[in-house]
Amino acid sequence: MGITGGIASGKSVVAGTLRGMGFHVIDADALGHTLMEPGTRAYGEILTEFGADIAGADGRIDRVKLGAMVFAIALGLIGVVTKALGGILGAREMGRWGSVGVGFGMVPRGEVGIVVANLALATGVVDASLFAVMLVAVVITTVVAPYLLTWVIPRVEAEEAAAQAA
Known about the structure:
This protein has helices at 11-20, 28-35, 41-50, 63-90, 96-105, 110-122, 128-165. With 166 residues, it is mostly helical.
């Protein structure tokens, strides 16, 4: 049986009750924390992927910092996908590759993200760490756009040439 739920939904209470009834309880959070201890394979891989700064003064993985970095990357990827998909769907009449080109062209809207993030920070809606996460997401969407456009532009041109030849 698995126990799932949001923060403060009583998962630990239910697990404790089951443990008290003699059930064997596996705590996935505790296992994950153990796997990230210094000297483990996962510890080394996390340091390799996220940099030595991800470790705190005690040498252990700073899970808050790691979570913020993972969240920033995920937010950036979601931003790329949703912006591209919105542009693609909105420009369907431009043909397959033309709409993809519009979608990819919509990805780098970093200036809007920076303005919104800055306003949120200035008004206290977000703190400095969440502001940093938002900036990473903006950078991801801005950096990936030229690569996407370099890939799609030849396809758009070929599609247009084929349409003119027909």
